[in-house]
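User:
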Amino acid sequence: MVSSVSHFILLSFSSSWEIQMVYFVVFSVIYMLTLMGNASIVCAVRWDRHLHTPMYILLGNFSFLEICYVTTTVPNMLANFLSETKTITFVGCFVQFYFFFSFGCDEGFYLCIMAFDRYLAICRPLHYPTIMTTHLCTGLVIFGWSCGFVLFLIPVVLISQLSYCGPNIIDHFVCDPVPLMALSCSKAHTTKLIYSTFNTIFMVGTFIFILISYALVIISVLRIPSAAGKHKAFSTCASHLAVVILFFGSVMMMYVRPGSEQPVGFQKVVTLFYSVITPLINPLIYSLRNKDMKAALRKVLVTKRASHKT
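Assistant: Predicted structure:
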């Protein structure tokens, strides 16, 4: 369909110029801390040979994915805080839409893969080395990165083919499909149904897979005779579960329920939580509860200090 709209206006968090500057500083700090935290985990996994195991390889990829995920939205949001027009081109809006939700899907798949890895390590410890081979681990890494980009082509193409003839104002800080479909001047009932079904199947399916994996893990942990063994297993799983709850809890609040029933402010806050705050918190969750990761991060810091001194 033909659209007369060449660009959209992302209102973001509309307020006075002074408040916009406060937002700019706050989100700049959050973005830098997110990059530093996740990059530290990526470097630790890359440089410490003790972390060259499937669990940490998956964690390193997940942290790099978080960097890509937050970069799809925050730089544009920061630019909007300094802009008077707050415009984004039609193509740019859908490119952001595609990458933002593709990386979001990949994050869900990676949480499933990491849950599967913990299931094998705890429930099938004797068979773990023969099952989780380098070949399988590499395949899972590729699967985790590619699935979101393949699957999300469908909703992006469908929504981009709707007719947009004005208005072009999106009361959000990201090109979200819910306000985009609301702006369409063509009938979007089928597209909305397909998009809602897609989201529900993806989120509920991945969440159930993770819950089943960790239910089996908890049952196996409870059978471990030693208290130290139980504590170690629970400590590892607790980090993963915390990330799962943060991500899926906020995403399901946003997308499983009909978007039209939710206030705009609520949509912004929830989207902000899972797209900006969660990537900031995740490195803290994984590093603070993991002795091996903390030791590797210390090595990275010591190496950097030594290189600076020389």
